[in-house]
Design brief:
The protein is 2% helix and 48% strand. The protein is an all-beta fold.
């Protein structure tokens, strides 16, 4: 159903079932699952062995490698290139890179020649090609383990006198002792710090250090995400050496057991999606594990068979879902990068085909390589209605979630190479979101997307976003085109998406119905304007299209009498953002 207006604006509602089907087809492109992760050997700095310790959200990896002389060399790896990080000098000239922020600043520990006869390690910061000694807390050694985007650094350092180690925060040129003894292992964007003190995991926030409430056992916290969720390990029975991994947030703890055949486990890192990496250990071996959605996975079961790899020690996971650490590759201990499949290759406005920021309620198309990285079933599945008559958020085993809201998107199509989803209205007011696909127990690499109020795109007949618009003539039945143009002064009906929030507020997945009282359907909050061949055209009606999912906007537009006949461009502006000027309407 659509809302149709004559020039006198008298409403009538012709049947448009076939038109509805046609538009749904425009939202669909046809296009089976493989291993969850691809493995990359990060190489070495000249020797035989290497180990990756941390990664950032740009995919940079830091760690250390044995050089050709057998000494430890710090490195930064990005896009296939392993580069050395500068050291502080000293007789041994060894260094270890242990942390990296999203700007590429690296921290770690480096050998330092403290006297003519002794060599010590000091925490260092490497940024802009230069290394800086961060000093100590009065003792001889220090180590930096993490750095956030504000440049705050954490780690541990010897105290003067007894030589015991204490956790520190290095900020604004000063090294601050956080506790009497222990270690600091990670820091998030809010400068919340985790580690251990006196054998107990702690969280340092707002100038206060507190042990983690309601956590049973002794141990340490090794990772924290930007939501304040902490991971680590605890020994719950002092009579035994075995440990269990934990996930803690706001006083509530979840524990997870090791993989079958192992006796202990530990969690070392967590990303914003809540995915946790860690290790399972026994007297005879060590193996890598992933804890996600309440389930523990053996990472070695999620990589290609016959890869030559045994993944052993994952140390970090970024918001792209990439995991780093160390393992055995063809008999050598090497640094690895695990990249999750499927890999999304593009996100566009479903009408215009343009990539860029997304708007609440916008229908988007998500693309992948159907053969190499399928993101849905081999036989595509179309729109289905679920509970309450709303469009389902699950099709063919596919779901699309938007973080940090945790809201699942209504889906209009799911196939191996393409998913069409409606951006939930719940993201309104956010500046950025993360999109992630879930399919057959696989989770895609998260896609970070900017959010804007509007991002309009007009649907076209050929589905490319260019050429003849998916436009009806004034009778609401005839499809506009060169053989069926609309007279000047007549009304055409066009459909678009990306209009943003509406009034009344849009409901994710709802099918639009006509109200008995104005407004007939929810209308865009942002102002709407239309240009036909560069001339301003009157918008007689602007509202969500009846019978369609919320997020499809219908415009009834009067063609100016002064327009020259022919196939001419039509462009829509919503809230000051314009659709691409590549869509046409036929006029006589």
């Amino acid at each position: 159903m659509m809302v149709q207006f004559e020039r006198k604006q008298e409403a009538r509602k012709p049947t448009v079932a076939l038109w509805f089907i046609s538009l749904q087809v425009l939202l669909v492109v046809q296009c089976a699952a493989q291993q969850n992760y691809a493995v990359t050997d990060l190489g070495t700095a000249g020797g035989a062995q290497s180990f990756a310790w941390a990664t950032n959200n740009a995919g940079q990896v830091v760690g250390y490698s044995l050089g050709s002389n057998g000494n430890s060399v710090p490195f930064v790896w990005q896009s296939g290139v392993l580069s050395r990080v500068g050291t502080l000098g000293g007789t041994a000239a060894q260094s270890w890179a242990l942390g990296v922020n999203n700007s590429g600043s690296v921290v770690g520990q480096a050998s330092y020649n403290g006297s003519a006869s002794a060599s010590y390690t000091h925490a260092f910061l490497w940024s802009g090609g230069a290394s800086k000694d961060l000093g100590t807390l009065g003792g001889v050694n220090s180590t930096a383990t993490g750095i956030n985007d504000s440049g705050d650094v954490v780690g541990f350092a010897n105290l003067s006198g007894d030589g015991s180690a204490a956790p520190f925060l290095y900020s604004n040129g000063n090294m601050i002792q956080l506790a009497g003894n222990g270690d600091a292992w990670a820091i998030n964007s809010s400068s919340q710090i985790v580690g251990d003190s006196g054998g107990l995991p702690f969280l340092y926030a707002n100038g206060q250090l507190k042990t983690l409430a309601n956590l049973v056992g002794t141990g340490s916290a090794y990772g924290i995400n930007d939501s304040g969720t902490v991971v680590g390990e605890v020994q719950q029975n002092p009579r035994f050496a075995e440990t269990v991994g934990f996930v803690w947030n706001g006083g509530s703890a979840t524990y997870f057991a090791p993989l079958p055949g192992y006796t202990s486990c530990s969690a070392s890192g967590i990303n914003q999606a809540g995915q946790v990496v860690g290790t399972s250990q026994s007297a005879t071996g060590i193996s890598a594990m992933l804890f996600a959605e309440g389930v523990v996975y053996d990472l070695n079961s999620l990589i290609p068979p016959n890869s030559g790899w045994v993944i052993q020690q994952p140390t970090g996971i970024n918001n792209l879902g990439q995991i780093v650490g160390g393992g055995i590759h063809n008999g050598q201990y090497r640094a690895f990068l695990l990249t999750p499949s499927p890999l999304v290759v593009g996100v566009t406005n479903a009408a215009s085909g343009q990539s860029g920021p997304i708007a609440p309620g916008e229908i988007i198309s998500i693309f992948a390589n159907a053969a190499a990285d399928p993101i849905g079933p081999a036989v595509g599945v179309g729109l289905q209605l679920g509970a309450g008559g709303r469009v389902s958020t699950s099709l063919g085993g596919v779901q699309v979630v938007f973080l940090p809201t945790g809201v699942y998107a209504p889906l209009t199509y799911a196939g191996a190479g393409q998913i069409n989803a409606v951006v939930p209205y719940e993201i309104a007011g956010l500046s950025n979101v993360t999109l992630q696909i879930q399919y057959q127990q696989q989770v895609s690499i998260p896609i970070n997307l900017a959010v804007v109020a509007t991002a309009p795109g007009i649907f076209t007949l050929n589905g490319t976003g260019a050429g003849q618009g998916a436009i009806l003539n004034h009778d609401g039945v005839t499809v506009n085109g060169p053989t069926q143009p609309e007279p000047r002064g007549g009304t055409v009906v066009l459909f678009l998406t990306g209009e943003g929030q509406t009034s009344p507020a849009g409901a994710s997945g709802a099918i639009t119905v006509v109200s008995p009282t104005p407004p007939l359907t929810p209308a865009p909050i942002a102002s709407v304007a239309v240009l036909i061949n560069g001339q301003s055209a009157t918008v007689a009606f602007a509202g969500e299209a009846p019978g369609f999912i919320s997020g499809v906007l219908q415009l009834n537009v009067i063609i100016p009498l002064t327009i020259s006949p022919g196939t001419v461009p039509i462009q829509v502006s919503v809230g000051g953002k314009s659709s691409p000027n590549v869509v046409t309407v036929s006029v006589k």
